[in-house]
Every structure is written in structure tokens, then in C-alpha cells.
Amino acid sequence: MSMDATALWQRYQDWLYYHEGLGFYLDISRMRFSDDWVNTLQPKFDKAFQDLAALEAGAIANPDENRMVGHYWLRDPDLAPSAELKQDIVNTIDQVQRFAKQVHSGEIHPPNAAQFTDILSVGIGGSALGPQFVAEALGSVHAPLQIHFLDNTDPAGIDKVLAKLQDRLASTLVIVMTKSGGTPETRNGMLEVKHAYEQQGLNLAQHAVAVTGIGSSFEKLAKSEGWLDVFPMHDWVGGRTSELSAVGLLPAALQGIDIEAMLAGAKEMDAATRVPQIKGNPAAMLALSWYYAGNGKGEKDMVVLPYKDSLLLFSRYLQQLIMESLGKETDLDGNVVHQGIAVYGNKGSTDQHAYVQQLREGVPNFFATFIEVLEDRDGSSIEVEPGATSGDYLSGFLQGTRQALFENHRDSITVTVPRVDARTVGALIALYERAVTLYASLININAYHQPGVEAGKKAAAAILDLQKRVVKVLQESGTPLSLPDLAAKVGAPDQIEAIYKIVRHLDANHRSLTLSGDRSQPSGLKVAAS
Questions:
Q1: What are phi and psi of 412, to 5 degrees?
Q2: Phi, psi of 12, rounded to the nearest 5 degrees
Q3: Among 72, 211, 292, 342, which is disulfide-ready with 301 (CB 3.0 to 4.6 Å)?
Q4: What is the pLDDT of residue 1?
């Protein structure tokens, strides 16, 4: 679709969405779909709106685990399908706010200090990405507590975070987030932190709170050890949609972020995206654009470019929300479809010096999403040249890149918000959660189960089990073994490569065995217990 400036301006106005209460704009005019094409999708959207309404009403959305999906109720408890669930949500928000207030006042404090100074959040995936995004977007340098994250099982990464806290560990509040306590990365992080506390003669329980499933083994552990508090992680809230549950609200409240404003922004966006029509519903307009860009098959990647430093982690947050929800092998009818949309991005205008060259002239395998923030900063700006501020340049780079891409037949969406504050961040979270739900319905997949993630966890567990057997055989053997002999004795003759990688890793860390021989010829290596 090519058009002159007048026609383009008219198309911009025809498709512009504006929400007065949120000061929010959505522009999909630079997606080149035609009105006729939109009409062909109307039946799919009619079903998608019904599916979303059913979800909100408490339909079972994850048949594998017989679970509802209720993250929408978190910001509007009146929608919860039972009085018990509603009370649960309200009580959790009250508990979070009360606890944060007591920490800020010093009523709750560590044994050896008058106040907590820092937060160490231990979690992975949805228990890390949302809180990290919000901390980066809304956290203040003058926050009552500074936050740090352990979000992996990388020993060097753990050491680096703990080294930063070394002198303040005694005044650090640890939040451990895990639904069951069985997530290996989080469990490992907690054990590493516990060890660090013990080395300083401290008791982790006196510095720790848990966010976990009620009735879980981890809740029992936290209570039996006398942790400071336990907050609920509900089974009807998936990790990637948990930012507005205790998972995200607790660290945000402790940092002094206005969680009520976040919830209000999300609630207002939810209401705006309940409108059962494409035009006038920003989540539907996003889903329409994604469907158009990728031909309903994810054929193009989503490049997210926020033109604001504080939104740096938004693309990383969206990566999990979108790719874990939409990346599915089969559809709801069991057909193999290999669905998904790849998401990547960093920030503008930094990326104009990085990958925008390829976006403009290289492989046209993407569509862009620009996030525009109207307000430059708190307070006034100096002019960096007559009549122009730093913020004018940022705005100019966004407009210029959008235009340059469109001229070269690369489509884009522009999301515009008035400023980066708690209300806006809540609204953005809700907008994309709901766009994902609608798009999943359009392509007939279940956005709320993730068998691929579980498969990876099972494979990792099998490797660790194999490692235990390898070490046991070597200790019992007493003589060096070749890899084929070792594999045979372990009872895994078809897993020589996996065994080679296990012993190479253990040898590199001087643990329980040594490797000898020519490293460039793995088949000739000998392994012995050390």
C-alpha cells in the first residue's frame, strides 16, 4: 500500500486510538493492511472477544493443570468468580501495603540494624522479569530500599550481586519467590544466599519473606523456620502475568512505588480493552497488527523500541510474556502449527547506532513497535542548540526512524504515553497481556500452558541424575575409564556425549574427578576419581 502524504494523514486519523483517562495513544496507521482485509478477520475477533470474556469469568484456561487464568481480577477484585477469591486478592494487597509500611517505619527491622536498606529478590522468569522491568522504570535513586536481583543459577553472577551487598547484608531484606519451592534456579539462589548469611553469622530467616503457593512445601519451610512473612502466589496467576500480584507488588511497594496507581492504570486499560470491536479497542488493534505483520503465523519478528531509558527492560519483559504465551507447537485442535512471534529490542535512540541500519535496509523480517513518551523530564530543559532540547532530539529521532522505515516498506506501530509513572506502567502491562490473549484466540492456541518449558526442566533433571551415577561409578571403579567404558558401566551407552560434557565440567571445577589425554580428541580421554 503506497499513498501520498494527504492520504497517509487521513489514515493516521482514521486508525488513531486515544484514551483520555490514561492520556494514551495507539497508532497502527503504518501497518499496511486494507479495510477489506480487516473485515475478513471480523468473525475471528468476534470469537476472540467471547473467549476473553469467558476467561475473565473464570473458564478453565489450562486444562493440563485444571487452572483458571485470573490475572485480570488482581486489579479489579469485583470480577473474581467467588467472594473467597475476591477477599484473597484484597487481603493480599492490604498485607503488602502493611508490610511495606512497617519496613519503611522500622517497625519491622533486621536484628542488628534499625532499618532494612536493601532488597535482594530471588526468583526467575516471571518472578524476576516483571519486578526488574518495574524497578528500572519506576525505581528512584532515593528509594527507601534499593533492589538487587538473583535471577539465575550462575555462580559467578550470584557472587557479583552478593559482593555488592557484602557490607549491607545484615540490613538486606530477602524476598524468595517460588510457587512450589521446586524451581531449581530459585532454590539454588536461596541456598547460596543462606550460605552468605551464615558466613557473616546471620540467620536468613530473620531477613527473609516468601512469596509462594499457599500450602506448598516452601510455605511450610518458611513458617517452620520463622521467616518474617509469607505472601500468596495463586495457582490462577501464571508467572509471566504475575507482576500485579504479590510477586510484583511487594518489591514495588518496598521501593516506594505507588502500587495502587499501577493497579488503577491496569484496571482502566482492562476496561478499555473489553470493548467488543476492533477499532476503539487498543489490545484488539495490536492483535490485528501482529496478525497482519506475520500473516497469522508469526512470519515477522516484533522489534520493540522504547524511546526512554527507564523503559529499557520493557522488551525483555514482553519477550517472555509474548514468546512463552504464543510459542506453541500445536493448536487447540491438535494440529502442528509451530506458532509464535519472536520479540527483541533495546532502546531508542541508542539502537539507531546499532541495528536500525539493518531494519531500514536489510532483511525485511520484522515490524517495529515504537514506545513514545511525551514528557521529557521532571522540570524544564536547557537548549542544546537554539530552539532545541535533548528531548526534542529524542522525539525527532523517533519520528525520523518511523518515517525512514515506512519509506522502505517496513511497518510499525507507535504506542504513546504521557510519562513513565506507575499508572502508565500498569496500563502498558495490561495492554500487552490482553493483546496476547486476543491474538492467541485468533490463531487458535492455548496461551496459558508451556509444555516446552517443562520439557527443558525434565531434560536438565535427567542430566543431573546422570551426573550422580557417573560420580558413583568412578568412585567405585578405582581405575581410570574411557568414556565408552564409563557410559557402559553407568548403563547409558547411548549418552557418551552428555557424559563427556558432565565430566569436562566437573574437571574444570576440580570436583571429584580428573580428565587426562588429548582434549582435542574426546574419545581418547580417560576419567578417574580424584
A1: -155, 155
A2: -55, -45
A3: 342
A4: 54
**Grid cell at residue 251:** 518489591
Question: Cell digits for 303?
Answer: 522489534
State the DSSP code for 235: T
DSSP bridge pairs for 476 = none
Say if CB 30 and CB 413 are below 8 A apart: yes
Q: How far is CA 215 from the centre of its chain?
A: 25
Cell (9 digits) for 115: 532499618
Q: DSSP string of 99-122?
A: HHHHHHHTSS--TTSSS--EEEEE
Report the candidate in 158, 160, 134 with the shortest Cα–Cα distance to residue 255: 134
Output the pLDDT for position 455.
79
The pLDDT score that the predictor gives to residue 478 is 86
H-run or E-run covering 481: strand 481-482
266-300 as b/e, with b when 16 or more CB fall inside 10 Å?
bbbbbebbeeeebeebbbbbbbbbbbbbbebebeb
Question: How far apart, in Å, are the Cα atoms of 412 and each of 11, 305, 398?
Answer: 14, 10, 11
Q: What is the largest CA-CA distance in the chain?
A: 83
Length of the chain measured in residues: 530
Grid cell 529521532 in the structure block, residue = 397
The SS3 assignment for 19 reads strand
Contact by Cβ (8 Å): 308, 371: yes
The HSE-up count of residue 201 (CA atoms within 13 Å, CB side) is 3
Which residue numbers are catalytic? 324, 353, 457
pLDDT score for 350:
86
Residues 233-243: b if buried by 16+ CB within 10 A, e if exposed: bbbbbbbbbbb
Q: Please identify which residue in the block is written with the cell numbers 557418551.
A: 496
Mean pLDDT by runs of 10 across the 530 residues of the chain is 86 98 98 98 98 92 80 96 96 98 98 96 95 98 97 97 96 95 90 97 98 95 97 93 97 98 98 97 98 98 97 97 97 96 92 82 96 97 98 96 95 98 98 98 92 79 94 93 95 95 96 94 93
